[in-house]
Amino acid sequence: MTRLNIRRLTNENEDGAPRVSGISTFSSTAFLVPPRGSTAQRPSDNLRGGMMRFNTDSGHLEYYDGSQWTDVLVANNSLDGGNRGLVAGGYVAPARSSVVDYITISTLGNAVSFGSLTVARSGTGSCSSSTRGLFNGGFTPGGQVNTIDYITISSTGNAISFGIATSVSEVRSGCSNSTRGLFAGGYFPGSPTSSNIIEYVTISSTGNAVDFGDLTRSNPGLGSFASSTRGVFGGGYTPNSNVIDYVTISTTGNAIDFGDLTSSRGGMGGCSNATRGLFAGGQTTSPSSFSNVIDYITISTIGNAQDFGDLTISNHSELSGGMSSSTRAVWAGGHSGGGVQQNSIEYVTILSTGNTQDFGDLTVGRRGPSSCSNGHGGL
C-alpha cells in the first residue's frame, strides 16, 4: 500500500486547496480541516450533493444535499448535549396538557419527556435564564389562572410553584435576559377582554410578579423574544395586528413602537439570538386562516420586519413553542385548522434566511404550548 504524508497542500497560488481525486481513504490520528467561510460566502456555482464545508456563522459543519446547504448534526437528547429547549403544556383535544418535553437544540430528534407543570394548562407565557424556565398564567380546566411555575432546565422533573402574577389571564407572552423575566398581554377572564399589562419577576428568586408598564395596545397572542437589553413583542389577536413593541428590560415603563410585521397576525412563535429575532406562523384575517410566514428583525435597531422564509405548514401557532440557541431557532406544536394538533418540530439557522427543516416530533401533538431555552438571545 502506498502512503502519502503531507502536512500542507495548496494550489499553485497558495490561496486554496487543489482538487485531489482517486484517493479512497485518509489515515491519521490528527485532524482534517475542511473549507470554511460565512453563510454569505457559500459556493453557488457547480454545486453537487455531498459537498462539505464549515460555516463560521453557525459554527457547524454543513453539506450540500442536492438542493440546499444543511447542517451536519447527530441526534442526541442527552442531559449534557448542549442548549436545551422546553415545550410545556398546551391543548390536546378535548383537554389541557401538563406535559413538559425537552430537546437538545443543536441536534435533531424527537422530544423527550421532562416532567409536568403543577396543573394542566395552555396559553402560558414563558421565559428563562441559563438555569431556570418559568411558565406564567394560562387556561386550565377550571378557567384562567395567575400561578407561575418554574423548573431547573438542566434536570428533569415536575415544575414547582414560583409565585403569583399581577393578574389572571391566558395567551400571554414572555421574554427575558439573564436576570429578569417579562410577561405581557393576554386575555382576562370574560374573554375576549384583552390586557396591555407588562409585569416582571427576578428569575433567580421566587415571589410574585411586579408591574413593569404597558404595551402600546391591549393584545393577547404576541410573539416575543429578547436580547440582553431589549424585550420585543409583536403582532396579536385583537384584532390581528402588525405592531411590534419593545422595552428596555433593566428599567420599567411603557413599551415603545419598534415597527411593523410584514403582515398582521396573532399567536406567533417568537425566538432569537442576541442580534436577530424571528416571528413565525400565526392566525391571519379570520379564525380559519393561518400563516406559514417567518419574519425577522435586528433587535438593536428599530424598523419594519423583513421576510425570512416559511414554515413547513401554515401554522396557527397559538404561542407555538419558539425556542433558540445562538445559532438555531426551533418551533414546536400548534395547529393548522380542522382541530388537528401538530406534533411537528421545525428549525432554521437564525443568521441565514430560508424555509424550515424537520427537527423531529413532540411526545404528544398539541396547540398553545409555551417554550423557552437556556441558550436564547437574552443570555
Protein described:
With 379 residues, the chain is an all-beta fold. The chain has 2 domains: 1-72, no CATH class; 84-373, Kelch-type beta propeller (Neuraminidase), CATH 2.120.10. It contains no helices and 28 strands. It has strands spanning 36-37, 52-55, 60-64, 69-71, 84-92, 95-104, 112-116, 125-128, 132-140, 143-152, 160-164, 173-176, 180-184, 197-202, 210-214, 223-226, 230-234, 243-248, 256-260, 269-272, 276-280, 293-298, 306-310, 321-324, 328-332, 344-349, 357-361, 370-373. The strands form 7 sheets. A 4-stranded mixed sheet has the order 1-2-3-4, with no helix packed on it. Strands 7-6-5-28 form a 4-stranded antiparallel sheet, with no helix packed on it. It has a 4-stranded antiparallel sheet with strand order 8-9-10-11, with no helix packed on it.
Task: Provide a quick synopsis of the model.
With 379 residues, the protein is mainly beta. It folds into two domains: 1-72, no CATH class; 84-373, Kelch-type beta propeller (Neuraminidase, 6 Propeller), CATH 2.120.10.80. It is built from no helices and 28 strands.
Strand order of the largest sheet: 1-2-3-4
| CATH level 1 name of the largest domain | Mainly Beta
The CATH architecture of the largest domain can be named as 6 Propeller
Q: Which ranges are low-confidence, i.e. pLDDT below 50, for 5 or more consecutive residues?
A: 74-78
CATH fold category name of the largest domain: Neuraminidase
Mean pLDDT: 87
- Number of helical stretches of at least 4 residues: 0
Number of domains: 2
Q: What is the CATH homologous superfamily assignment of the largest domain?
A: Kelch-type beta propeller
